[in-house]
Amino acid sequence: MSELLKITTGPYTFTAQTEDAAPKTCEAFLTLLPFKQKIIQARWSGESAWVPLGDFKMIDQHENHTSYPSKGDILFYPGGISETEILFSYGATAFGSKMGLLAGNHFLTIVDGREHLSDFGHLVLWEGAQDITFEAM
What we know:
This protein has 137 residues and is mainly beta. It has two helices and eleven strands; from the N terminus they run E-E-H-E-E-E-E-E-E-E-E-H-E. Strands 1-2-10-6-7-4-3-11 form an eight-stranded antiparallel β-barrel. It has a two-stranded antiparallel ribbon with strand order 8-9. A hairpin with a 7-residue loop joins strand 6 and strand 7.
């Protein structure tokens, strides 16, 4: 069953819905709430920002994975050929690293505040790292 999360980053607040097609990723992530990190502009993936998580382990399998998330999709990459990360797509994205194309678990979708995604992307691109908080609603 889908749950709603509040995501706050910079001056923006988004509502995201968990994806039923990624139940293990969602279940694992929900146990971490509230989840606070920094988010920065993605280096290889286009119009997206990422939360680098190094060798953090939350789940080690792929489910509902994609390399081409839509605007407002949030992916969890469990690590492997690149470090563990959360990818937040605010526009055209091809998820990758310096090693090539990656596939991440699409586990959240922005359902409210989508009109601010481009502004959020502009903020991260031009003003740098932002705090980001994921909370239960």
